[in-house]
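Q: what sequence does this backbone want?
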């Protein structure tokens, strides 16, 4: 997605979008933390060039409901959101490693910059760590049983459309573009693997 991009379906609910202008997956997804649903992306601009401080736009309108020790945070949708797998549910996105600490309860409208790639915390190089989940109820727990990922997380390509994202290194995954009945509204317009030695979640939280 691009800055300030909004995508609203005919029923009035937002369509979830991949939060960056470019998608460049890291080459490996080990250790176990990443073998489930979290993925890491390297900072690239829409021309495919290496960049720094890659902006991440809110994939849906929502607010920061959790912040953690790696400057990680969870953005939770205000309302139900359309996803490529056909669901219309509340959605959460977990991101980590920005150099700037996110602020709890900050609200972002879809398309507003809400995060930036960085190398803060348990990270060996600038990247965006991301995981996405859907929930039936906002009161549902944030974390999975192991405490290392989002509760009810699902494959990212099943929850985020890649409209207006340049797919530089999508690998074999089934990324999809939302094409049906949309009302797009534009307001104003070998890298070393990232090693995690502890949980993203703060202990005792
Ligand atoms: Zn990661």
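A:
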């Amino acid at each position: 997605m691009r800055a300030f991009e909004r995508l609203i379906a005919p029923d009035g609910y937002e369509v979830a979008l991949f939060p960056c202008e470019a998608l460049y997956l890291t080459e490996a997804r080990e250790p176990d933390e990443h073998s489930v649903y979290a993925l890491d992306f390297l900072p690239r601009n829409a021309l495919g060039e290496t960049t720094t401080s890659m902006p991440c736009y809110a994939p849906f309108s929502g607010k920061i409901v959790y912040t953690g020790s790696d400057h990680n945070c969870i953005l939770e949708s205000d309302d139900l959101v359309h996803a490529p797998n056909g669901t219309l549910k509340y959605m959460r996105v977990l991101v980590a490693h920005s150099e700037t600490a996110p602020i709890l309860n900050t609200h972002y409208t879809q398309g507003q910059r809400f995060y930036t790639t960085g190398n803060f915390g348990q990270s060996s190089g600038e990247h965006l760590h991301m995981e996405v989940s859907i929930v039936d109820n906002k009161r549902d727990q944030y974390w999975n049983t192991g405490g290392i990922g989002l509760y009810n997380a699902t494959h990212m390509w099943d929850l985020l459309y890649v409209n207006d994202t340049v797919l530089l290194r999508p690998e074999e995954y089934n990324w999809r573009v939302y094409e049906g009945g949309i009302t797009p509204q534009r307001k104003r317009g070998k890298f070393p693997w990232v090693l995690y030695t502890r949980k993203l979640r703060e202990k005792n939280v």
